[in-house]
Amino acid sequence: MAAGCCGTKKQKLNNSTSVTCNGTSLIPNGVRNGMVAHPEMCFFCFDVLYCHLHSLDPPKTPNFCNDPYPLFVTWKIGKDRRLRGCIGTFNAMNLHCGLREYAVTSAFKDSRFSPITRDEFSKLHVSVSILRHFEDGSDYLDWEVGVHGIRIEFHNEKGSKRTATYLPEVAPEQGEQFINQ
Length: 181
What we know:
The protein has helices at residues 39-53, 95-108, 170-174, 176-180, and strands at residues 9-13, 17-21, 26-29, 68-77, 82-94, 124-130, 134-136, 150-155, 161-166. By secondary structure, the protein is an alpha+beta fold. It folds into 2 domains: 1-16 and 133-181, no CATH class; 17-132, Hypothetical protein ph0010, domain 1 (Glycoprotein, Type 4 Pilin, 2-Layer Sandwich). Pfam families: AMMECR1 (PF01871).
């Protein structure tokens, strides 16, 4: 348990891997050796969303591994890649089921956004983040921007539990805005 201001608990999401694609071009992020996330996972998320938007049967079982990991699916839209939805789980889920579930959940149930529509589909980009090697931080500065993600848990002045999660790619993307949050 890390001691920091406000009694926050932090965990580094060390060595998580992620891949991003827009359905055609691929931009691999993260560790090359031992990389768990693969471009096929992004294509699968697009297939799942397309089938859901068009009321079709779900796509066939993918060929990538089905090992259990905590995971997040992030949808962004447009050339400027504005966030459109991001939801995941810290509970390990088999990748086939987890990506199928969170591709839809992040597209339709992120409370910060209205559900993704058919008209937006061609403008979407998706990232799959596979989380590994959690460790407690010793203080609020015990993480490296662009390498570690951070999970913060604390109780507010009314005693309600609050959490925030920032995947490894969030800090470099948001810069100073991230630090202010």
